[in-house]
Amino acid sequence: MLTIRLKDGKDKAARRHHPWVFSGAIDSISEDEKGFAEVLSTDDYFIAYGWYDAKSHIPLHLLSWNRNDKADESLIRKLTRESIARRKAFFSLPDTTAFRLIHGDADNLPGVAADAYGKEIRIIVSSRFADDNLHIIAEEMNSCLHPSIIEAVTDKQFSSLEGISERIRHFRDGKEAKEEGTRENARFIESGIWHEAAPGKGQKSGFYCDQRDNRNAIERYAEGKTVLDLFSYTGGFTLHALRGGALSVDSVDSSESALRHLLFQIHLNEDKGTIPQRSRERVTITDTNAFEYIRGVEDGKYDMMILDPPKLAKTKGNLENAMKAYKDLNRIAMMKIKKGGIIATFSCSGALTREDFRKVLEWAAADAHKDVEILHTLSQGEDHPVRLAFPESEYLKGYILRVL
User: Is pTM beyond 0.85 here?
Assistant: First the structure.
């Protein structure tokens, strides 16, 4: 095991259980090789156990602040079991079979985002730690849950940053296996609505479990409304608006395949009786750039708008331009929506704080010359926990607004 000492004055965040340590905070390393490390202060005070890899853009990830833990493979197994155990309540929900099992650094497993979709588990790998230790995590998850298959996909946004290859790996009975032939979509329910996710395709793991509570929240406002679902993807918000009694929904996305899947899921839920019959007749899909589409919207056409854009600030370096884009999007929506209309607006950019997002909305309202009130403050679901010591784990921010 490596021994790493942190510089005086550079170890405060680590002592407070923040999991990221950058090279500038490292004073000395016993050996310059990747692996488990005991992390100490310069006066040999124990801080944590971690994983060191000089080739990672975050060279030292802290995994445990408990000195009684063992810094070896057993720690990864323990962290995996504990993460699953914290989701115990989700396994007995009668109307939901899709939820997050491991939420990266928030569960002390950096670069591991694992979701349950019915009997399948999908993992997004976004760090060298996750890539190196995936077989251990998959084996432990199989031991706990016995899924039909575990599929792990490298996150394209991090592959070049971390220097890991883009690939899809499969595990059956806890062992890596070659996937032969085609596999059916994973079918699952969320809040009583049916969904499917294609294997090895789509954004992230194929579905966004983090919006579960927010989809339920907007459903309450949909009755009798003419709705715009901007950046609709495969229609999570569209389906809830339909179940909530929307008169019509215009679903807009730049992905034609996602919109086709949205229509399939409408038919699926009509057949299951979870949304009103003939819901398909209420939905119009448009394959186009959503930012351009909203500029051409007729004033007062919509009673309700849902704005769920992709991550606009991937790093802090992108933050200024991202804030301008969020402001412009919300300003136009506030100008276009019918008087008294509802806007559900979101940011999934971790680099944008909740305070900054609210400031952006205030600027947008001022520039639109609109009086706007906040009805609900929204965040990610409880299976995507936010650690107080790790504010970066709160990446999803949202508000339900009424434009007066």
Answer: yes
